[in-house]
Amino acid sequence: MIKTGNGFANGIEFMDQQHTFFVASMSRLLEAMKNGEGKEEIRKTMRFVELHILKYFPREEEFMRENNYHDIDFHITQHKKFRADFEEIKEIYFSKGYSVSLPLTLQRKMQDWLTNHICKADRILVDYVNSVRKTGGGSAG
Length: 141
Ligand SMILES: [Fe+2]
Prior knowledge:
By secondary structure, the chain is mainly alpha-helical. The protein has helices at residues 13-34, 38-66, 72-96, 101-135.
């Protein structure tokens, strides 16, 4: 059972679970930076974010389709933007190599995503789904 006391938790288990991993990954990167271990940790963080984009985003997008979410296009646009931003960071890493500013850039990107997407757009999505379920609308087809 996931605690609902977390700022990002919205009660939908597959989302809360993945978002818990997201926050943990981000926290580990921040901790590693403080200990001068950003270079080692950033590889793990990038692997996590990559999988988050490739496996979790499609699942969330499927969830929106299943629930006939009216704002799906805008939400998917945000996912695409995050992916593009991440690809940019990856590109710098693989073309120019590691630099101390890179983990900071990635960590800030993740923090921004947590604040402005996970805690906002994802929450709005879940609020919508809950309200539709409560009123018995949104047939499963
Ligand atoms: Fe989302």
